[in-house]
Amino acid sequence: MYPAHVSDSSHDMTFAVVLASRTAIWACADRQLTDKQNPRRSSKSGVKIVAIETPDAVALLTYAGVGSVRDTQVSQWVYRTLRGLNNIPLERSLEHIADAGRRRLVQYAKRESIDHFFTAAAIRDGKHYVYDIDLRKNPPLIIRRIPKTRNQVKIGMSGSGGLYVYRYEFSRLKWLARLIRQYEREKVSAEFVARQLASLNVSISARARADGNNTVSPESIVIHRHPKGKRAGGRQWCFDANGNTIDDLDAAVPTLANGMPVSEITAAIMRHTLQQMRTPTPDGKPRHHFEAWPDAATTQALLDRIPDTPDDKFP
Description:
- It is built from 8 helices and 15 strands.
- By secondary structure, the chain is α+β, with helices and mostly antiparallel strands.
- The chain has one domain: Aminohydrolase, N-terminal nucleophile (Ntn) domain (Glutamine Phosphoribosylpyrophosphate, subunit 1, domain 1).
- Strands 1, 4, 5, 6, 7, 8, 9, 14 and 15 form a 9-stranded mixed sheet that branches. A 6-stranded antiparallel sheet has the order 10-2-3-11-12-13, with helices on one face.
- Strand 2 (16-20) and strand 3 (25-30) form a beta hairpin.
- The longest helix is centred in the middle third of the chain and has 24 residues, at 161-184.
- The chain starts with 8 loop residues before the first strand and ends in an 11-residue tail after the last helix.
């Protein structure tokens, strides 16, 4: 139990935006975690995006409302909630998040007198959508937003930052949608789009802070996924308060691939590899990367120690 004067949750009215096009999906979220009861526990270390792959879809999910509970960020909670759920299609996965959110998250949102929303961009069965999950409803309401045309870039937003977009930056948001169309035609790079999203976040944070609203940080994370074609794959960027890219090992977006805990697997292998690289060879020379990479038996032993079942409880 926490002392009475320490909150066991933080909230982040935040700014998060997702965009879905025919070939790619994008998400940008600020990094502010706000604790009104104990401001010293507030931080700019939030990772408010989860990357999800299912048999029928790829999706980027973000949120606004409760940011963390007992030092567990909601993105990590979503990751653990879906971990081990193999061969579950996207919309069933979203239902699983919604059901768990109603049972586990709503109590903390009510305690802070806030609402909690999830928003996701997805490409499912070759079509692109934006999904909203409203936990105020019982059962939670899942809304699938369908583009009017095949070429329309669908946009979703959550958090208090959205108010400043509609008030001051709506034309820029529409320009970003056109920019993503340019990306689809290979006229601009993925990094250029990411920088424009980060710049939008910096502007929203400044406008919010001018109103005395400190719940949107200028720092942000941007991620995209391009599931098919010669540019298949995706990247993630972490941006500082000026919109410049930085390296931050703590900013990695939790990633699941058909229920497989990709983030934990990657972290376990990297920890082992770094440990081996720091261990001198018998002649006292440092090891090279290829010498330190675990063999099949070691890799299997590492995997056997990683949980592979769902867990929607907060520690």
